[in-house]
Design a protein that fits this description.
Elements: H1 2-26, H2 29-36, H3 40-46, H4 50-83, H5 93-109, H6 111-120, H7 129-151, H8 159-179, H9 183-206
Helix pairs in contact: 1-2, 1-4, 1-6, 4-5, 4-6, 4-7, 5-9, 7-8, 8-9
Length: about 210
């Protein structure tokens, strides 16, 4: 029903504001309902508890980011497996920058929700989300380093370096979304970051 959709929408916006102002732990369901102009009964009609409400606020943003990251990683794996290796001429800086721009556009579309997850999610299952993305990225880099080894047998990348590299990549995106307000400026920033990251990655194998 239209009225149910409007009520749910009001609750989500009120919750987003409350979570952003006070963080998940200190957010008040009573205040959320009051600011939305609904009863607590209405809230529990749509959401089981505070955790479910938080999930509803940020879930779409989180799943969308996961989708792009996993899709990009899977594409690189397929390319490497089809060619038996992954070298600079086969996948260059321009390709990765296009993926980065897609990610930037998505992150700025959901910027408020992403900031909410990164800065106000203590006490939820999302409080270690940066570490989860780092782990996912580290696994991918380890896999790609092993495949690059086929093209460059004398080059072996240490696990500790791969772990640091994954940290660095995720930190670049976290810095961007938390410090740069405008998407256009973020694209310029990421252009430099991609050049730096790609030059460093391939420099490990070609120098």
């Amino acid at each position: 029903m239209k009225q149910d959709k409007e009520t749910r929408s009001k609750l989500l916006q009120s919750a987003r504001d409350e979570f952003m102002e006070k963080g998940y732990m200190k957010a008040s369901l009573r205040n959320i309902c009051k600011n939305a102009g609904v009863t607590t009964g209405a809230l529990y009609f749509f959401f089981e508890d505070k955790a479910a409400l938080f999930d509803a606020v940020i879930g779409e943003a989180v799943q969308s980011v996961y989708g792009i990251v996993r899709g990009h990683f899977e594409e690189e794996v397929v390319l490497a497996e089809n060619s038996g290796r992954l070298t600079l001429p086969e996948r260059g800086e321009a390709d990765d920058f296009e993926i980065a721009k897609e990610m930037i556009h998505l992150m700025y579309r959901y910027r408020d929700d992403i900031l909410l997850v990164l800065t106000k999610s203590q006490g939820t299952r999302y409080e270690s989300i940066a570490d989860e993305f780092i782990e996912l990225t580290e696994m991918h880099y380890r896999s790609m380093a092993d495949k690059m080894h086929l093209a460059y047998p004398d080059k072996v990348i240490d696990d500790r370096f791969v772990h640091w590299l994954a940290h660095e990549q995720i930190d670049i995106f976290i810095y961007m979304i938390t410090h740069i307000d405008e998407e256009e400026e973020a694209v310029r920033f990421m252009s430099q970051a991609v050049t730096y990251m790609m030059s460093g990655w391939y420099g490990l194998y070609t120098t």
